[in-house]
Specification:
410 residues, alpha/beta, Arc Repressor Mutant, subunit A, 3 domains, five-stranded mixed sheet, 14 helices
Length: 410
């Protein structure tokens, strides 16, 4: 108990340093950020990376080992000469929680200081309702998750909540969901849950998750396309997540792409999302079944039963021809617009993620075909298009990683 009390006091002292923004805290944040992205390293390598003297880095490393944030992992094996010590993050020095809100469920995860997933609960039943009641229910679910954790609650350093729509991660405001008060949503949720808390856009979190633990292998310029109920993109430029001036970058689904009379949930007509998203897949499938075409889901649809997007995806995997045909049509429409993104950004990697990406090649092959047809050959040859490695875990992994990085990145 005494050791835990000392640890918690040191913990709070470091958190206070971060809030004040002292020079020492900024250097410590840079050191932690280096270890987050690069793993363990020696003092010499760290001093070169941070452009600080070896004695300065040695001093900070010593303090951070005493505070419990870093571990000395012993001598590094080298071919000759003195063997330097290897230092890295202490996995048990702190924990971070990610909350990924879906349309009909919530995913919650806990990672340790090194980024290892310690606890994970997927698909906790929750119907996203943009109301005070919906927000309170979300807080109850998160509080219940925390109460069951087998760790000291004092070691939870930050929580990050993924929110769809327009989100400013710097100010903590959400302009699409739970926007009921003048105060930032991050402050409201922090007050209700009793922990430091940040928020970010769900697609951006998925992008970050894929960048840190997914299919990104050294690429620095990446576009992540989230094809779920809605449609959005995450952008990484020169290794950094691009947010835009107010955090509103990536509203790909609201590009005016069609001359149709379908009203998007944003209130406008002709948005890309109206023809290339999970919402579009759902609507088109129902229209075509009601028009007389056959599907595995025909009986349920014609009986008036509400089907889910997961059931449609499962039907694609079971080789339902109507569902496959609609997914491929969506892939062609989407690929035409992604071709424009490739012409604009010239990325190394385009990742197709979100719920519809679970159909794998049924979606990605039409996208690749359209990209080859509509983008410049010189540009698209630089861009690899692949399906998300993390799949339905991208959002929760990203939420957890953002909870950590939002706290420590200088």
């Amino acid at each position: 108990m005494y050791v835990l009390l000392i640890y918690c006091k040191m913990n709070r002292h470091f958190l206070k340093e971060i809030e004040i923004g002292s020079k020492n805290a900024l250097v410590k944040k840079r050191i932690i950020t280096h270890y987050i992205y690069n793993g363990s390293s020696t003092i010499t390598d760290l001093s070169k990376e941070l452009d600080l003297s070896v004695p300065t880095v040695t001093k900070f490393i010593g303090e951070m080992c005493e505070d419990g944030y870093l571990n000395d992992y012993g001598k590094l094996e080298t071919s000759g000469g003195r063997h330097p010590n290897l230092y890295g993050l202490n996995p048990e020095s702190g924990y971070f929680i990610g909350v990924d809100i879906k349309k009909f469920a919530v995913n919650i995860g806990l990672i340790n200081f090194k980024g290892d997933m310690v606890e994970l609960k997927m698909n906790i039943p929750y119907k996203l309702e943009n109301s005070v009641k919906g927000m309170d229910e979300l807080c109850h679910i998160v509080s219940s998750f925390i109460a069951e954790l087998p760790i000291s609650k004092e070691k939870i350093l930050n929580i990050n909540v993924n929110v769809s729509g327009r989100v400013n991660p710097e100010s903590g405001y959400s302009f699409s969901q739970f926007n009921f008060e003048e105060r930032p949503l991050a402050d409201i949720l922090s007050e209700k849950l009793g922990y430091r808390l940040s928020i970010d856009n769900d697609t951006r979190a998925m992008t970050y998750g894929e960048y840190i633990q997914g299919c990104v292998k050294g690429e620095k310029n990446v576009i992540f396309v989230n094809v779920s109920w809605g449609l959005g993109i995450g952008i990484i430029i020169d290794g950094k997540v691009y947010t835009g001036k107010s955090g509103f970058s990536g509203e790909f689904g609201h590009v005016n792409a069609f001359d149709n009379e379908i009203i998007c949930h944003c209130g406008k007509k002709g948005c890309l999302e109206t023809e290339a998203s999970g919402t579009a897949l759902y609507r088109i499938l129902l229209e075509r079944i009601q028009g007389g075409e056959r599907s595995i889901l025909s009986e349920e649809v014609l009986a008036g039963k509400q089907i889910t997007l997961d059931e449609i995806i499962a039907s694609v995997i079971k080789e339902d021809m109507l569902c496959i045909e609609i997914v491929e049509e969506i892939g062609l429409k989407l690929g035409k617009q992604i071709a424009g993104l490739i012409n604009l950004f010239n990325p190394e990697l385009v990742i197709i993620g979100g719920t519809l990406s679970l159909t794998d090649d049924y979606l990605t092959q039409p996208i690749r075909s359209a990209v080859r047809k509509y983008s410049l050959n010189l540009v698209n040859k630089d861009s690899v298009i692949m399906t998300s490695k993390l799949k339905d875990r991208a959002g929760i992994v990203g939420a957890c990683m953002l909870a950590r990085s939002r706290m420590f990145e200088a």
